[in-house]
Amino acid sequence: MRACFLALLAPILVACGRPPELIGIDNPQMPAEYVAAAGQHRLFIMSTRQASDVAGAFYGAGRAPDLGLASVDVTVPPTHLSGHLERPEHLPPDPRTEFAVVDPAIYSNETAFIRAIERELAQRPPGQRRLMLFIHGYPRQATRARPQGRRLQHGYRR
User: What is the pLDDT of residue 82?
Assistant: First the structure.
């Protein structure tokens, strides 16, 4: 009886688990950069969280002694519905139907970080050089905050 109960409970527990960490996890069969209709946007990150050794996590829960400076490219799937977060349930993400967070970069100092932001803004026409500041609160996972912030900005432009 107990084994039967555990066998029935296991799929429910797996379904309720956290989504996978996806920062820097690209799809080798369908890389995000090859999906022409996907919107790709660079997000710049400042974090007081400690770097993580977990693949796809980028930052962990612990506090870092110094401010972390980074960037990622977030792709918005061409099938994106406003108000939804098409997050992959399994890795690797499919950029045709799910958000992907690729090309993570860590900046060694504030000067390099500011120069990267300036280069990004210089690529845009003068009337489109706006920045959106998204401050995510604890305890939101960093891997979930990146697509969430991009979804907010993507929806804001419409």
Answer: 84
